[in-house]
Amino acid sequence: MRFKDEIEITCSSGRGGDGVASFRRERFVPRGGPDGGDGGRGGSLIFEATRQRNTLIDFRFNKHYSADDGSAGQGNRKAGASGEDLLLYVPVGTLIHDAETEELLADLTDEGQRWTLPGGKGGLGNWHFKSSRNRTPDKATQGREGATHRLHLELKLIADIGLLGFPNAGKSTFISRISAAKPKIAAYPFTTLVPNLGVVQIGEGDSFVVADIPGLIRGAADGEGLGHQFLKHVERCGLYIHLVSPDSWDGTPAERFAHLNEELRRYGDSLAKRPQIVALSKTDTLSDEEVAKAAEALSESAGCKVFPISSVSGDGIRELVGEAYKTLTARREAEYAAANPVVEDVWDRPD
């Protein structure tokens, strides 16, 4: 499946049906009076977030979407049928902007969350306008037009943890080791051209989502490589696992670690301030002595503990995942406590 994270489409909700001017005509019922029915409501156009989709590719070819119009009213006060709603499914994490004003209309961050473009109201039948002064009104109102918008849909993946690292740092192999994700893996830079999501199962009922973000090189914040296109996908991650390979093709591990963090800072200062767990990858290519030396140098530069790992042999993977889950759990608990402060009950205070 191809990945698509931005698209522009035109959407229209349905027009309301017209009200009807009608008079009751039945045998043995003289002067039956007005009985024109109301028009039906126009169909709404609804966007709903679902985890069953992780790309906007479905909108690539069809750029125009319209809900059905409502039907006109009928005699005997029969209301017209409402137009059928049009339900469009988008991935969780989709932002809906007005393409002309760039106003953010909705940010669908939760499963089942909806944003609706309501249909037009139906017109009123002539029986609404009957009065003591006007017993035979021939007035009926037209249905209202639906709304039409040119929308810019933008997807920002929602993951608990984002994988950072320059090309060939081993991110794809790592995510395939800890989850069921099956990204393309090869021994050359830019193997991964789209973000990959993987669900890591810790135990029964315990899991977290990891996003492998590709295309990060020096100058990514300025649009070099694929970085500017995909850096936005790490904005929603509260924790990063930063993989640094021992390769020396683009500076030392410590230099690459510093350069990538500088790209985060330039893209958005808040990204660089988020917690990171640093791992020295591809340790299966080094001797034990070389691993210890490289990890010590990287730890000195990063100012934190470094986890030596090998996604091929599995060495250090359990410890790294355990630390990530521990850090993530602590962050979730802190966020919950901040959002739900404990209110002290004055009656429980000691005298």
Domain tally: 2
The CATH superfamily of the largest domain is known as P-loop containing nucleotide triphosphate hydrolases
Structural class of the secondary structure composition?
Answer: alpha/beta
For the report, how would you describe the main beta sheet?
A: 6 strands, mixed
> How large, in whole angstroms, is the Cα Rg?
30 Å
Write down the secondary-structure element order: EEEEEEEEEHEEHEHHEHEH
Query: Which percent range fits the helix content?
Result: 10-25%
Residue fraction in strands: 15-25%
Alpha plus pi helix count? 6
With strands numbered from the N-terminus, the spatial order across the biggest sheet is 10-11-9-12-13-14
CATH topology of the largest domain: Rossmann fold
User: CATH architecture of the largest domain, please?
Assistant: 3-Layer(aba) Sandwich
For the termini, the CA-CA separation is 67 Å
Topology, number of strands: 14
Q: What is the overall silhouette?
A: elongated
Q: What's the CATH class of the largest domain, please?
A: Alpha Beta
Q: Give start-end ranges of low-pLDDT stretches.
A: 186-191, 220-225
Summarize model confidence as the mean pLDDT. 83
